[in-house]
Amino acid sequence: MTPEDISHTLEKDILGGTLAPGSVLPQGALAARFGVSRIPVRDALARLASAGLVELAPNRRARVVQMTRDEVIEAYDLRLLLETDLFARALKRMTPQDLDRIDYALARSDLEARNANWAEGDALFHAALYAPAQRSRQQAMIDGLRRACRVQIASYAILPEDTDRWLADHAALRDLCRAGQTTAAAERLRAHLTGARDTLLSHLT
Amino acid sequence: MTPEDISHTLEKDILGGTLAPGSVLPQGALAARFGVSRIPVRDALARLASAGLVELAPNRRARVVQMTRDEVIEAYDLRLLLETDLFARALKRMTPQDLDRIDYALARSDLEARNANWAEGDALFHAALYAPAQRSRQQAMIDGLRRACRVQIASYAILPEDTDRWLADHAALRDLCRAGQTTAAAERLRAHLTGARDTLLSHLT
DNA sequence: GGGTGTAAAAGTGTATACAGATATACAGAA
DNA sequence: TTCTGTATATCTGTATACACTTTTACACCC
């Protein structure tokens, strides 16, 4: 059990909803759970903190982040800004191979969605969508925001109709990429994200 | 000497040019320097890594980040995207008090610039410029990018003419804010950033 | 009941020690 | 000289121990 393993496992717990926003994460308990001392646990918590999944304060126990309504709005605004920009860059450089990879990612995400593992597939599809842009830093920022948003979503049961809409959006995005309709594709992505934001916000109050 | 103190001190060294990009940072040496054990040093290095100032790899010594040309371009593209957006949001909500604070920051940055501490003043001025938007996450992202860029700049001697152009840009931005000329202000910010990028790129090869 | 002070319990931060991995220096071969 | 293999020195990762801080629980007073 390395710190990386520990942080990955905890990330799954957080994003899977086992650890709800606001939960406390005592180092000692985690150390016992993973069969290590507190040192690698501290390391793992530091990783999660820099990924934006937990909050650390001196002499305080770590907590799973809990975003306010305004913070959720800001996060989605940032995703809109960064993802539409990255998508536009990707579209300009998209090769037939990239399109095939997007097809593959779409098929996989479709599979995962029925397997109660929708978010994994979502991240995979969008990663494939943006990969042609070859912008690792921007991609990393987007991943961070995506994870932060997902922590908030994880505590709610996702409705099947949401999943359907979401899969339809992905399929539409794929089609628009293939057809080379860049402005329509960008618009669809924008709608996809604002839709996701609004369903999350409707659950928050 | 807390981990936070240590990371701040190291950050100053890195951004001040004492620790050039690529320098190694052995935990033991730092522990001796700061009079603590290696544990808080590891903590400080983790902070710097999450701020994007050093690179950490398992069982390897920490290194000050060294960006490639493409990474510099990507970083400035991201700053352009995030800073122009944040500036536009700030302009919409700018009050007379905010304008006074910007005046104050401009005066201070003018002072710091003559004191060989230009970057501190630069960060201060831009923070004042964006503060009315009240977007902590976006501001944090921008700060991270700004620091990452500055690490690369730190190793070069800044020409006085650059500082002059840079101060003139700031003054112009302030004036455009006061005059309420939002589109011209946004355009000036864009020029300010692309100018900074190009001088950095000209030094890189 | 509701607030307040205090002591025990639980938790965090860090020094020390040691095992394992990496980097360095140097001798010998091409 | 330049490359390669190897022994040594250095460095990192983590368990343990202990001091200090925060949290919790409970008795007390209003």
How large, in whole angstroms, is the Cα Rg of chain A? 18 Å
Element order of chain A: H for helix, E for strand: HEHHEEHHHHHH
Helix content of chain A: over 70%
Strand order of the largest sheet of chain A: 1-3-2
CATH superfamily label of the largest domain in chain A = GntR ligand-binding domain-like
Greatest contact between two chains: A-B, 23 and 22 residues
CATH topology of the largest domain in chain A: Four Helix Bundle (Hemerythrin (Met), subunit A)
CATH class of the largest domain in chain A: Mainly Alpha
Number of E strands of chain A: 3
Structural class of chain A: mainly alpha
The oligomerization state is homodimer
Instruction: Please name the CATH architecture of the largest domain in chain A.
Output: Up-down Bundle
Amino- and carboxy-terminal Cα gap of chain A: 39 Å
For the largest beta-sheet of chain A, the strand count, sense and barrel status come to: 3 strands, antiparallel
Strand fraction of chain A: under 5%
Average pLDDT confidence of chain A is 92
The domain tally of chain A reads: 2
- What is the number of helical segments of chain A per DSSP (H or I, 4+ residues)? 9
Shape of chain A: globular
Contiguous low-pLDDT stretches of chain A (5 residues minimum) are none
